[in-house]
Each structure stands twice: as structure tokens, then as C-alpha cells.
Amino acid sequence: MLTKNKPTTLTMRYEQVLVAHKALMVLAQMDLPRDTAMHIRRLVRVVGPPAEDAQEERRKLLRLHAQIDERGQVVADEHDQVQFGSDEKRSAYEEAHRELMELEAELEVVQLRASSLPAEGLRAALLIALDDLLLDDLG
Prior knowledge:
Blueprint (H helix, E strand, L loop, with lengths): L7 E6 H15 L5 H32 L21 H16 L1 E6 L2 E2 L10 H7 L3 E2 L4
């Protein structure tokens, strides 16, 4: 049995939080040992709120800068690309979005040990996406 690692405070940019949350949700769909699954559940509970905050702020930025239809919905084209109506509005959104993604969240987490993940079926991109949520204890 592995000794439990201690909680640590991580500072992550919103961009990293969103990527890590998505990676945790991918892991949540895998067949994992109960202890690992519970650890992922705890991480999702910590990472989820700032990820939702970032998404909500992004939605506000879209409502502020994008074209809005008569129902109050953001207008997108047939390729699901948001329509802004002008280059200025698109540029303003992109700048505000960049600034949003640079904001930081402090998270109190117990890092997930790499050794607790299955050796089969993992892609390097998933491990990279976990960023500092993953503790490399494999040497």
C-alpha cells in the first residue's frame, strides 16, 4: 500500500484548470481501481468549481462581444463558429479571453500518483493535460 501524499496548494491558470478538468473527466470514464477512482472524484470536486467559473466568465464575454439572436443566444455558423459581426468585436473578445485564461486559481489538492494509473490505455497527452495534479512517482 502506498503512503498517502500530503495536500499541496497549486496555483494554476484558468487555461490549465480547464485542460486538467477535461483530462480528469476522461480518466473518470476509465475502469480504475476504487482508490484511484475516488482520488479522481476528489480532484474533480476541487478542480470543477474554478473550471465552471472560467466557463461562466467565457460565456459572459461571448454575450458581451458576439452576435446575439432574437432569443438571446450566441450566433454561430454551420461550422459552430461564433459570429462577432466585426473584426473589432472579435479582437476585443480574443483579448478579454486571453486575459481570462491567464487568471489564476489556487487549489488545495492531493496530487494523483502516476503509479496509481493503469499502464495500458493511457496517452501521453492525458498525462500532460493533468499538469501539476499528477505526481510523477515512477522515477
